[in-house]
Amino acid sequence: MAPRGVALLGSTGSIGRNTLRVIESLGSAQFRVVALGAGHNVEALADQIAAHLPELVSVDSEEAAHDLRARLFARDIDLPRIIVGEPGLIEVATHAQADCVVSATVGAVGFVPTLRALEAGKRVALANKETLVMAGELMTRAAQASGAELLPVDSEHNALHQCLRGEKRSEVRRIILTASGGPFRNSTKLEMESSTVSAALQHPTWNMGAKITIDSATLMNKGLEVIEAHWLFGFAGDEIAIVVHPESVVHSMIELIDGSVIAQMGITDMRHAIQYALTYPERHSCELPPLDLTSLSGLHFEPPDVDRFPCIALAYRALCEGGTLPAAMNAANEEAVRAFIEEHISLTDIPLVIEAVMNGHHNQPATELDTVLDADRTARLSAANEIQKLAKTTPLLAEK
């Protein structure tokens, strides 16, 4: 049997690099890389092209494309077809020889390419949670119409997918997402207000990119996952719970109607979830070590503090009200996180920006692509205004 073709959106990011490691460990007889979509990290992309020889590559600008061609020419590597911007990502996502598309871009940039992959009937291994947050109805409708498979790569949803295998939906009372609690699990609100960017980027258990790490610090990451879980598994907001589990050994759980709880456990390495999504419904041996239960000193669980982490309540509100509100919330969060990383606002200003944008948002049904994209654009403009107001009064800036 010929190896299955893989197209990878976000190849130079954390998930992208780990996906390529998984493909290399599984061997060329199982998978081959046919297309890579990246941003501006052309040095890393050139290395990936040399190792995997894809037919198609996407970068985010003509400058990056020129740099990439020069690097490949200097290394005497045959040039793949190189396309720029969103059209390039869409071509990667719909490549004719791609059996599976790994959607690992960060933020809204992966929204339209992922939708096109689903419309084309591809198996989509989804690591971009913003895609389902923005327009879960559009995505799931496209998958149903084309027969595409949508498999989660996020560790929590991947765990739920494994726990739900073989279970009747009518026998599952609720699903439970676990959260590490992030770097500020034991911090006071005052300590969080004065947090530096470097402190917020110190995740206690996972090694991730900057945006998702800040989302973990505010627990917005868990809020986004609640919305994602709704669209992936069909559970209502009041059937999706969050529990803080600092060891990050239990990745998620399901509770059955008889009170039984089924949990998926493992080491904190995304390659497990990536391999599961690539090879499903089969399982293959993995180069990673199994979880050593005898090395665990204990497993602890506690409810999240919604007072210190108000992003959780904002996400549940967005799911409850539906429409384009989740897209507006996601856009506001992306802009606020960027502003925090650039030290224009404080960490605790992030939920203030999001809530202000949500309060001013004109909610509409999220049934058309243009409507969702317009909500995203409008929310970003509103967020920019809120950030400008807060930047004038942020103590972090006053000290600088």
Question: How are the secondary structure elements laid out?
Answer:
Layout: E1 4-9, H1 14-26, E2 31-37, H2 42-52, E3 56-59, H3 62-74, E4 81-84, H4 85-93, E5 100-103, H5 111-119, E6 123-126, H6 129-146, E7 150-152, H7 155-164, E8 172-179, H8 189-193, H9 197-200, H10 210-218, H11 220-233, E9 240-244, E10 250-256, E11 261-265, H12 271-279, H13 311-321, H14 325-341, H15 349-360, H16 369-391, H17 395-399
Parallel strand pairs: 1-2, 1-5, 2-3, 3-4, 5-6, 6-7, 8-9
Antiparallel strand pairs: 8-10, 10-11
Helix pairs in contact: 2-3, 4-5, 5-6, 6-11, 6-14, 10-14, 11-13, 14-15, 14-16, 15-16
Describe this entry's structure for a reader:
The chain is an alpha/beta fold and 400 residues long. The protein has a domain at 4-153: NAD(P)-binding Rossmann-like Domain (Rossmann fold, 3-Layer(aba) Sandwich), CATH 3.40.50. Helix content is 48%, strand content 14%. The chain contains 17 helices and eleven strands. The strands form two sheets. The chain has a seven-stranded parallel β-sheet with strand order 4-3-2-1-5-6-7, with helices on both faces. A four-stranded mixed β-sheet has the order 9-8-10-11, covered by helices on one side. A hairpin with a 4-residue loop joins strand 10 and strand 11 (261-265). Helix 5 runs parallel beside helix 6, helix 6 (129-146) runs parallel beside helix 11 (220-233) and helix 11 runs parallel beside helix 13. The protein is globular, with a radius of gyration of 21 Å. The protein starts with a strand and ends with a helix. 48% of the residues are buried.
